[in-house]
Design a protein that fits this description.
It is a single chain. By secondary structure, the protein is of the alpha+beta class. It has 2 domains: about 5-75, no CATH class; about 95-240. Helices cover about 20% and strands about 35% of the residues. It has 3 helices and 12 strands; from the N terminus they run βαββββββββββααβ. The protein has a 7-stranded mixed beta sheet with strand order 11-10-9-8-7-6-12, covered by helices on one side. It has a 3-stranded antiparallel beta sheet with strand order 2-3-4. The protein has a two-stranded antiparallel sheet with strand order 1-5. It starts with a strand and ends with a strand. The relative contact order is 0.14.
Length: about 240
């Protein structure tokens, strides 16, 4: 039996998420199956965010009373990694992860981070990640990132070889910058992916109606968080599946 999506809850998961946040590392959830293919336990390990794979990682297994999980079968597995909902990991930060498929083996991930000051967002990071199977191997890379580092709002294009191209946005107002970013993403993302050297992807997938609709929804969510960061309880990370 193969699995793609897991619903996981419990104090063990909360502890693992907090550990990953504190160490600024990526949390990877690992399922363990018996000979019949049934998942009977879950574990996790932490890895640096700039590494795609780790050989022989040290896995920490959750005890039976630490987590509760439901495995949804009959979907292709993707490298044993699960999308995790980061909700209020730090007092003055808000995280949002939107993970949705745009093809049979391609996922588009939008990751947002907002730092708050009083009742407003002081700065933000919005990162577009591409995850898919290319030539039998899983590729998971950040492609475009918008943030306020260095004291100004700018865009980084991240090539397949790791090189970055930085460009200051024409507007330095956060909400206008987000609207500008998603407008140019809707028009230029397929071109950027090709120019940045990411091969093996059907660029038409990025222009299909479901992708356009979901990106518009993400834009609205991010604008809402910029306007009211305390409203995070109304905007959750999500893993979207089209059937």
């Amino acid at each position: 039996m193969r699995y793609r999506k897991f619903n996981v809850t419990g104090p063990g998961l909360e502890r693992a998420i907090q550990e990953a946040v504190n160490l600024r590392m990526q949390l990877v959830i690992v399922p363990d199956a018996n000979e019949a293919g049934k998942i009977h336990r879950l574990g996790y390990y932490l890895k640096p965010k700039d590494k795609f794979k780790m050989h022989s990682p040290s896995i920490i297994w959750f005890s039976e009373d630490e987590v509760r999980f439901e495995a949804i079968p009959d979907q292709p597995s993707i490298n044993g990694q699960l999308a995790i909902d980061y909700k209020h990991p730090r007092e003055h930060e808000r995280h949002l992860i939107i993970d949705f498929p745009i093809g049979s083996n391609v996922q588009l991930i939008v990751r947002g981070l907002f730092r708050t000051l009083s009742n407003s967002a002081s700065d933000f990071v919005i990162q577009i990640e591409l995850k898919g199977n290319v030539d039998g191997e899983t590729l998971w890379r950040p492609v475009v990132r918008y943030d306020c580092a260095h004291g100004f709002i700018h865009r980084d294009l991240i090539a397949a070889d790791g090189k970055k191209t930085k460009e200051v946005l024409l507007t330095q107002t956060p909400i206008e910058a987000v609207e500008f970013a998603f407008d140019e993403l809707s028009k230029r993302l397929p071109t950027w992916i090709a120019e940045l050297g990411y091969k093996g992807f059907d660029l038409g997938l990025f222009e299909q109606p479901t992708t356009i609709i979901e990106m518009a929804r993400v834009q609205k969510d991010i604008v809402r968080l910029l306007e009211n960061p305390q409203g995070m309880e109304d905007v959750h990370s999500r893993l979207i599946e089209y059937r």
